[in-house]
Amino acid sequence: MTPSALWSKYTEIRDRTMALATPLSAEDCCVQSMPDASPIKWHLGHTTWFFETFVLERYEASFEPFHKAFRVMFNSYYNAVGEKHSRPQRGLLTRPPLPAVRDYRRNVDERMRRLLERPANDDALRSLTVLGLNHEQQHQELMLTDIKHLFSQNPLKPCYQTPESYPPAPPTALEWHDFEGGTVQIGHAGEGFSYDNESPRHKEYIQPHQMASRLVTNGEYLQFVDAGGYEDPALWLSEAWDWIKINQHSHPLYWLGKDAGWMEFTLGGVLPLDLNLPVVHVSYYEADAYARWFGARLPTEAEWEHAASQQQISGNFANNNRFHPAAAVSAGLVQIYGDTWEWTQSSYSAYPGFYPAQGAIGEYNSKFMVNQYLLRGGSCATPSEHIRPSYRNFFPAHACWQFSGIRLARDITMC
Description:
The chain is of the alpha+beta class. It is 33% helix and 11% strand. The longest helix has 30 residues, at 123-152. The radius of gyration is 22 Å and the shape is globular.
């Protein structure tokens, strides 16, 4: 990528982040709804901190930080960088005010412009800048998920955006696609950006299996709820059963008002639950229990990637500005990309031959390779250019505030 092209991409992605924050008030941007979420103001600062800490500090002559305290305030989890402000207390950061964070972004952007326009910029500089842009796209998705969770806690149930009206679209019938067993290659291949945890490309063996043609819908998941799925311990992992009982879960995160008819909280406010759309915001626990109830299972990440690598990357992504799943209306293996992240049964771990990068930047992915499950495919909150067949997302089994859904798989012997 040429310096001018890189700068153009830089401004495009940074402007998109600010556009996502535009509908919000200063109060919206300061509040943290739970320890796993972050205030929007913190996201705006942290994505800027990344460029200041990992790019400008390394390459800028006579580097001076915009504000010395920001090094601690906006550090997320990089122990090699130094101290961090406690994650559960990010919502207490009433200062700096939002305009000051915007000033911070403008200052770093101008310094990045001067740096990227230097004749002597090199491959390492460009690589770190591209990493920072992909990091920012991850936070664009987190901004949407975090503001949705925040707004859902408000009795006013405010709208982030005006909901668009879509005609009813019954989903295509669920069908099963056969895949032969054997050795397959997974992991990043070819040109273009990838995270270190997507490599090295390697061989894995898969058994003969089938994958569902589309995602599980709200209507199909409602059958599980109505059948007493949340009351049947035989369907749940032991840890999952404890989780639903301690937290009194009996339906997906944003479903509301069972007695008066099911509704769903969305970024467009509270809407009637559309039974044709994919179920979303379910945890690994819930996805696994539903699969058991259905008589199927979740795919492995190797099965998922093998199937996805044969499909074009297209779907309902954040670029559509819908920020909600859409119905599957075409035949074939659909919704592989976009709509919802798809839980797999695979734990997040290193590929054979993986070694993290040296220094603080090596903490980006590798330190989380424990007690997490892999999700694949992107969602309606993911930028389309950010996804690829080898992309590995990961969350704890209880996480459900992300746009996560269910695709079923089954062994040939289960048919």
